[in-house]
Every structure is written in structure tokens, then in C-alpha cells.
Amino acid sequence: MPILNAIVHRIEKAAGEAPMSLVPATSPLPSSPALDDLLAGFNDAFNAKPKAWGHFAETTPEGEVSSPFASELAGYLEGSRDFVAFSRDLAQRIATLVGAHLSLSGDLLVLHHEVGDARFLSFALLHHRAGFAIDEALQVVSARQLNLTQMSLAARLNLNQWQAGDSRQYLSWTRDRGGKKLAEGFAALLGAEEGVDASGETRTLLKAFSDYVEQEDLPEEASREKTDALIDYASDQARRGEPMTVEALSEVLDEQQPKAFYDHIRNADYGLSAEIPPDRRTLNQFRRFTGRAGGVSISFDSHLLGSGVEYDEDRDRLIIKQVPRQLREQLKRQS
């Protein structure tokens, strides 16, 4: 993953009521193996985060330009604005936003990098945690470590897709920390609007898959295999930070009939987007049904519903057709 430009600006919270202050860097970071490893760690952590997917909004509802971020980024890419100035202005706006909603200091990492033929602009506000290290004298020393899992704000932009103008999902950003006001402020800072509801689209895709399995009247083993294939494909795309496509998924589900699931989606008109960002939480819920209440804990694979397990909605009863052997022996001993 070649890094074309990288920089870190520090955002500090002083004591008391003082506002956030920016400590800007004056030059980009030099290339190094550590920086390459940091980019790899950022990608892994970012891909695991709940995100919104969308694009730049041309104007606000009031008809004003939504954010200077897109125009300043275009200026940097065209060569009329240098990377240090572009990233510093971004850091200043991030500092103002963080000061209004959080009380944490952090370092803003901004990266212009490539993955294969694709070019990306990524940034994240990273915080620190106390850690330990062993020095050259084999003594334990304190060390401040970047906490990649604690990203207050982070975004990634696929520059190829943005400039080609053929996608509405080239921009993704985190929205799992700091509450609704911070999330709305971050989207406004980016000038972004959601192009697709990742969790909603993933739920619709899974509903279409369940309908497909029921329609095909597949045996339990085949149903389990296809469910595992779907989850594996979706999880792999999530780890890569890439969307799913119905055509690719259809090929994964049935190599003998690679268009079968795709035709099912098209003929039933589920209204799915061409590209679907996988939502990890929705996928995890689909793999297993779980519940706990009143001392009873139940968990089973989703594909068993309707075969090994039935739900009687009218009487609110769950019928387990095949009691696990260990549980059955316990029940027999008790009786």
C-alpha cells in the first residue's frame, strides 16, 4: 500500500475551559516501515467500525455549498494546494468540532495512499493509552501507544470513484462515538450525505437470501452451506472495507448456477443497490438467533429456523425438534 503523502497534526485540550488548540505539523512524514504498519493497522480498525456510506452533497438544504472539504481536496489533487496546508485546514475544523462535543486530545493522521490501482484519502483522530515497553537495558518503561480501536472520527474517500462520478458510495465515515450531535457535525464537516443505508441494505439482502432458500426448498445441509458461504463472503468484504455485489454473491452461492440468486433478486425487485456495504452487526445477528430472559438462555444457528426449530407466533412458543444430547441426558436425570 504505497503512501503518497502522510502527516500528523496534534489536537490538544488544555486544562479548564480553554478551547481545543491545534499544534500543526510543518512537513509531511517521511516514508518508513512503521508508517506502513500504521496504515495497515488503521485499515483493519476502520473496516471493523460501524460506518455511514455516501457521497459529497453538492449543496445544503438551504442551497449553500455544503463544505469546503471537497473543494480543498480537489485543489490539492490538482496541484494548486499543497498537502500540508490542506491537511492543516482540515485539522483546524476537526479541532473545532471535537472541542464542541468531546474533551479528548488526539492526533489527526491524514494519509493519501494507494491500494492496487485505487487511490484513497483517509484520516482519523487517534487517541493514546498508557502502555509499557522494554528498553535496551531490559528494564520496564512506560510508553504512550496509539489506540487504533478508539477512533473518535475517521473517514476514507475512494478518489478514483469520486473523480469518475459513477458511484454514490465513495465516501465512508465512522459514526459510533460521541452521540448524534457529533455524528451530524462530522457529516456536515465532510459535506457528506448517505447514499445507502448499510444496515438496511444488508437486512434486505439477507431477507432476499432467506426467501431464496425457502423458495428452492433446500435440504438442511445445503441451506447451512449457502448461509456460511454468504456470511464468509460478506465478512471478507467487510474486512477489506469493500461493498458486496449481488452478482459476485450469486456466483459464490452456487458455482453450477452462478446467476440463480441474482435472477431471484432481479425478478422479485427487492430494491437493492448495485453495491451493498456489509454491516457487521446485522451479519452477526443473522448467523445466530440469541436471547436471554428469566433464567433461560437460547441460541441457535439461523438456518435451523423452520426445520430443527419452529416459532409459533400465535402462542409465542419456540419448539425445538432435536434436543441436544447433553441437555436431554440432564433432563432425564432430573426427572
From TrEMBL:
GO CC, any one term: bacterial nucleoid
Natural source organism: Halomonas lysinitropha
InterPro entries xref list: Nucleoid_associated_NdpA (IPR007358)
Domain of life: Bacteria
Family named by the database record: Belongs to the YejK family.
Name under which the protein is recorded: Nucleoid-associated protein YejK
Subcellular location: Cytoplasm, Nucleoid
Keywords of this entry: Cytoplasm
GO molecular-function terms, A-Z: double-stranded DNA binding; single-stranded RNA binding
PANTHER family on file: NUCLEOID-ASSOCIATED PROTEIN YEJK (PTHR38772:SF1), PTHR38772
